[in-house]
Every structure is written in C-alpha cells, then in structure tokens.
Design a protein that fits this description.
The protein is globular, with a radius of gyration of 20 Å. The chain has a 4-stranded mixed sheet with strand order 4-5-7-8. Helices cover 29% and strands 18% of the residues. It is an alpha/beta fold.
C-alpha cells in the first residue's frame, strides 16, 4: 500500500527527496507540496523480544515457561512511537504476526505478555493479548495526536493459500477473481481454514475502535475476491507468495479508497 501510494503521488510531482522521520523504515518528501509520507514497520505494534527463564524461581518459571517472546502490551514499538506526534494522518494495521506459529510456537516459543513490566497472570492467549494491545495502542495514539488529526485502522489484508499454509506447500495459482461461493470456502470462520486469520483479526479490530475517533479503512472484503493478484510462484521465494500483492494491482484500489475517505469524511 505504501509503495503504491508513492508511485501514485510521483505522477503529480517528481521532486521527491528520500527522508525518514524518526523510526520509519522508509519515507519520501514531495518538496513542491511539503508532504512527507512514511512507512513505520512494526510486527505487533508493541515492543517484544526473546525471553528465557532465569535461575530464580519466578512466577513464569513456576508455570513451566522456559523460552518465549516477551510482549509488552503497554509499550509502543520504537519504530512508530514518535509517529503520532509527527504525522497528520495515521493509518495503522496489525494482524499477520499474531497467528504465526512458525514464529510464536504456542509450545516452544509462546507469546508471554507483560504489563507495566510484570508478567500478566494468568497468562493471556494471543487472542486476548491482541485485544489488550489494540486497546492500549489506540489510547496511546488518541492521547498523542492533535485533535484535528485523522486516524485510520486498516482492516486485515487477506491471504489466499490453498492446499496448506505457506510452509505446507500452499499455493495460489488462480488467474481470475473468486466467486462469492469460493470466497466463503476460503474465509468462512465456521470452516476455520488456513486463511481465516483476516476475519478473526477484523473482529478484534472493530471491537477495539468502538467509541474512539479512529475511522475504519475496510480493504478486506474487496481483497478476498482477488486470489489472482498475488506474486504466487513468480515472487522469487522458495515457497509460493499468496500474502503480498503485485503492483500495479489491488493495493492501488486501497489507496483510491483512502482518497475517497479523505475527501468525503
């Protein structure tokens, strides 16, 4: 979405300087318009890192935890902690990493949630941890951004793996959009298949923004149909890429939706 937006804006002006605000992974300033856009990459929105049991018999050790990832539900990741104070428009998103067993194995490397420096007892599931993180980070943004700032939470970008997940030989070889029935086969919560993550995350997201000044940028529904828009086997990876998107392509329409929202709201 960020790359698509940069390409689109370059059609209006080529006087662009690469410049990154504090913590940003990438950034560009369009000099004629004094406009800076930046991409702040963060996996969980909050700070996290490896955790190992100590020699002391702490509460986590007594519960059998030996290794995992400490996730501080109340501490924003450094990559974007300054973003609410700098940007006039903020588009937030999280989701893919919350149900990533290859990274956060529930047995061998679970998420271990901390609040105010202390482990949350009883330990939280990733689902409840996500709720806490969303609540805290939305509150953080609301307190940091100017009253007239515009805040979006973008819904989850769907994946289209068929025949297994990315590390199980899953593929996406379709060459046309899905039908309504095919969409439900891939994404129905009741079927609980490989790609159910997107709708699960969105349930948490919609609940989290209730009563806040955040707007929803809903890209999920339109994207569920586009199983044909991924790099697939042409992505240069050892496995098929059924998560990222080709450019030009679907993410251009996400930005069209953003522009319409900015104009009409």
């Amino acid at each position: 979405m960020f790359v698509s937006l940069v390409c689109t804006l370059k059609k209006a002006s080529n006087e662009v300087k690469k410049w990154r605000p504090a913590g940003a992974d990438r950034g560009h300033t369009f000099l004629l318009y004094n406009l800076t856009i930046a991409y702040h990459r963060t996996n969980l929105l909050v700070r996290y890192g490896s955790w190992s049991a100590s020699d002391k018999d702490g509460i986590l050790e007594s519960l059998g935890y030996k290794h995992g990832f400490r996730v501080d539900i109340d501490v924003p990741d450094l990559s974007w902690i300054e973003a609410p104070s700098y940007h006039d428009i903020l588009i937030m998103n999280t989701g893919h990493w919350w149900w990533a067993p290859a990274k956060f194995d529930p047995i061998h490397s679970p998420m271990i949630f901390f609040d105010k420096g202390l482990p949350v007892i009883p330990p939280l599931s990733p689902s409840l941890g996500l709720d806490m993180v969303l609540k805290n980070m939305i509150m953080f943004v609301e307190n940091k951004m100017a009253l007239n700032a515009i805040k979006y939470f973008r819904t989850q970008s769907p994946r289209h793996f068929e025949g297994g997940d990315w590390n199980e030989g899953g593929s996406c070889q379709r060459n046309r959009p899905l039908s309504q029935g095919q969409v439900e086969q891939l994404f129905s919560l009741e079927r609980n298949r490989t790609n159910v993550e997107a709708r699960l995350v969105n349930q948490h997201l919609y609940k989290a923004i209730e009563g806040t000044s955040f707007r929803i940028l809903d890209i999920s529904r339109m994207s569920e149909f586009r199983a044909d828009a991924h790099p697939s086997s042409s992505g240069g990876k050892k496995h098929e890429d059924c998560m990222h998107w080709c450019l030009p392509g679907l993410t251009d329409f996400w930005n069209d939706l953003l522009v319409v929202n900015l104009i009409t709201n």
